[in-house]
């Protein structure tokens, strides 16, 4: 039996925990050349911009969703596409987790659609996403 034959709609992806800190946030934004002060300057983020803390970069959320999908895929398939939308900000000090489930399976073509999310510690979905993955068939 191939991997695609064992996948069913509703199957869940493993949760991944994230507890980002100042160093991770700084290094991530430095790698992107993102110099917005809300990601590294606490007084600026809180006093000038009015945020409750340093803001996690939106693209970092997308990277975490991608990691969730790729971890589930393993070496059996390929990530074809991913889309996500940051709906609510996250901050240093928050505990976040990603996860998801299988939405649909096309066994004939090997195409699987995944629903992905990042939730904050209040269990609110702050970054929903959709990924399409391809598994070999035949």
TrEMBL record:
Listed GO MF terms: (3R)-hydroxyacyl-[acyl-carrier-protein] dehydratase activity
Cite the InterPro entries for this sequence: HotDog_dom_sf, Mitochondrial_HTD2
Q: What is this protein called?
A: MaoC-like domain-containing protein
Which species is listed as the source? marine metagenome
């Amino acid at each position: 039996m191939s991997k695609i034959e064992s996948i069913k709609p509703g199957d869940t992806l493993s949760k991944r925990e994230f507890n980002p800190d100042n160093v991770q946030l700084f290094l991530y934004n430095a790698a992107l050349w993102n110099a917005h002060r809300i990601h590294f300057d606490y007084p600026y983020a809180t006093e000038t911009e009015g945020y409750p803390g340093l803001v996690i970069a939106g693209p970092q959320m997308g990277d975490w969703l991608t990691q969730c999908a790729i971890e589930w895929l393993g070496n059996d398939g390929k990530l074809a596409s991913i889309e996500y939308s940051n709906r609510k900000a996250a901050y240093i000090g928050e505990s976040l987790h990603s996860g998801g489930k299988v939405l649909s399976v096309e066994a004939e073509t090997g195409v699987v659609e995944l629903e992905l999310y990042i939730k904050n510690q209040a269990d609110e979905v702050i970054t929903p996403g959709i990924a399409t993955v391809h598994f070999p068939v035949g």
